[in-house]
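One record is set out below.
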Amino acid sequence: MRIAYLTSYDVLDSAKWPKQKAGLCGAGYHLAKTLESQSTHLDYLGPLEEIKPSFSHKLKWHLNQKLFNKDYFSFLEPSVLEKYCAQVLPKLAKFNSNVVLCPENSIPISYLECKQPIVLWTDAPLCASIDFYPWLSNLAKETSDRLYAMEKLALERCGLLIFLSDWAAQTAIETYGIDPAKVAVVPWGANLETNRDFEDINSIVEAKNNECCKLLFVGVDWIRKGGDIAFKIAEELNSRGIETELTVVGCEPEAEALLPSYVKKLGFIPKYTREGLNKINKLFAEAHFLVLPSRADFSPHVFCEANSFGLPCIGTQVGGIPTIIKHNRNGKTFSLTANITEYCNYIASLMNNYKDYKQLAHSSFNEYQTRLNWSVAGQTAKKLIQEVL
């Protein structure tokens, strides 16, 4: 089987990946390398050149901003999408691919007409971002209408739709009336190279102690990812007499006053450099919990990465997170209305009953080994793709 691998970015050159899309690009890279390791030939179709907005599109943006204080995006205009997707056909004609796989979103395939079946493997439909993520929460009606029309066209064009969570799959089915028979749920893996086994995890777990509870927060958006909640959790645990340390990676904590000494700020750590990888690996290995109480999120890769170290995760019942985190198997999810005491009671119980914590840590790695890694994802997806050929 030959797969035409369609990405808007250069999947093989991490130096060109935009910081805000590093997770998506990293996923595309790891998926590609996984499929190749499983004897699948990939024909790379990316990167695609961005279509610059015309004068009329710029004018529309300006008028929507000034008159209505709304966001207008020209990249959703049919004329722009047609030009964007037209770049794919000459690339595709150079190969003898059996199927087109896009591990990104619906935009690169929205106007793609080809003889090969099209497979979209994405975290969630773009429509799920509307009024969920800030960048799509103030759309002009024209832009909103364009997005729904574009995505409906793209999803109907696909022979197979793979989403990372049950929530994402159900959202697509209910929003666009998609046939459930062509929809599947397959989580992605960790955006880290890993070859750890149960002996390695046992060594990591045994090297920790319960004298200081180490919480790790990894996210590029302090508020959306719940950094302020993570801080309050650390604050209350310390007030209870449970020595706690919170390490923040990926963003700058938003705080009016000076942060207490138990909060460690490390900023953005690039995982695609040897130094950055070693640093993040050390943090995952030393922490007791990954704490990411997101207010809005789809399916964060960092949960899979944490589990690959036997690190239990604490998240929220938002988006696709409940598909990744299963209660008392690899952590726990809390409702958005949960108070800080609920989080702290859970953490304190495990730290005070350290045998239970160790059991959860080993169970977390088992979740990674059995369903949250790229090897399992690749094998599962290959079987699904072969069925549409």
About this structure: The chain has 14 helices and twelve strands. Residues 2-189+374-386 form a domain with the Rossmann fold fold (CATH 3.40.50.2000).
